[in-house]
Amino acid sequence: MNPYSVDPNQSYSAPPSDMISGNDGTQFNPQGNQLGAGSATNWFSVGFGSFKAAPGVWIGMALIHFVIAIVLGVIPLGSLASYILMPVFTAGFMMACQAQFEGKPIGVDMMFAGFKEKFGSLALLGLFWLIGIFLIAAVIGIVVAITIGGAVATSALSGGNVASALFGLGFGTILLLFIVAIIAFIPVAMAISFAPALVVFHNVEPFEALKLSLKASLKNWGAFFLYVILTIILGVLATLPIFLGWLILWPTMIGAMYGAYREIFLVPANTTASM
């Protein structure tokens, strides 16, 4: 059984009348199917199946991608470029998964396929992603300023020691910043998650792709919550053997996201709105 196939017995919400037919026995549902939280475990199963089908290629792509990330991180403005290019590389990885679904051989060169296909639209997604990260940083900065300013003002008015007041912020402040960062990051991550796939597979315009990705992700918040929890647990385990586990986990996560895209945005071609 193809691990990427869309289960005709899956309980989908009724698809709209504007679905776009595909050439693989499925239709594109722009509104996104509503799945159970347990679907997240299937996504990881699909992802690991993708890795097992071509482990050498996926490890090669992982190593190349890590090296590129390191290089961009040390050159001037490289970090900004990495944000803009992130959806471009993601699209290439999605196309590699699609090729596996179609039974075609893949090579490490496929990770650069996004530079040849829809590069402008994908780079625009990257610009939106960069803006989102900047906005998150701004929100955190405002929270830090308010927290520190409040502590200083309170200490000054009460005649206390300002340095002691700042030191006393400690763990509580760190926890607050972490919570704020997570809350701010979630919608940005949801918006970018499926946008590259929607652009390259369905010719969706960048801003519309972000909206569809966010809407579908919110509709499936339970599955995404479980996905995040599993990612954290597996990430800790992958980090223990001097990060070597990421050579398996990272490709698995790529395949999992492709599996999630297929389950959320595709339905069997014989599905009708009267379901």
TrEMBL record:
Keywords: Membrane, Transmembrane, Transmembrane helix. The chain crosses the membrane at residues 57-75, 81-101, 122-148, 168-201, 222-249. It comes from the Bacteria. InterPro entries: BPSS1780-like. This is Transmembrane protein. It comes from Undibacterium nitidum.
